[in-house]
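re the bet — no i am not wrong, look at it urself. input seq straight from the record:
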Amino acid sequence: MENRINITLTEETKGQAFQGINTLKTTMPFLLKLSNAERSSLQVMNDGRKPFVEKSFDYASRNASLNPGSGLLEAAPNDLELYSFLSSVENDLEQLIEMVRDTKQLAGSEAYEVARFIYMKAKMNVKLGMPGSQAIVDDLGKLFKQAGQATAQPAQ
């Protein structure tokens, strides 16, 4: 058993982390949530299509016959700039989320490993006839069984 991570979080650190997330949300109040149906109905823009979009805007800005009208061409560069900015934000957040998930998984694994060791020792104590050990094994056994069933059920 190895303890690779041992962090004691202060309330101040927790508050700063949540404040940082809240700052991101309030800095970008234009962020929205699409339904699955909305998301699947949209055209997909990606880095491979970005040059096509940029060249199309360029042609339309120099050829009146290509202008889509209704102020669309004037607004389109704003969408492209927002797309580029949010792509960079997304990349940074994906790196952060990966680090958060990995750290969470390691911390949880270490805690669970210690808990299983304690449960195993309690079972040994029952075999050794130590008073009160059976109650501990029974209590932990119920929780251990419930936790195993919860992870075995398919995600909904």
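see?? Residues 46-151 form one domain. told u. also The chain has a mean pLDDT of 94. so pay up
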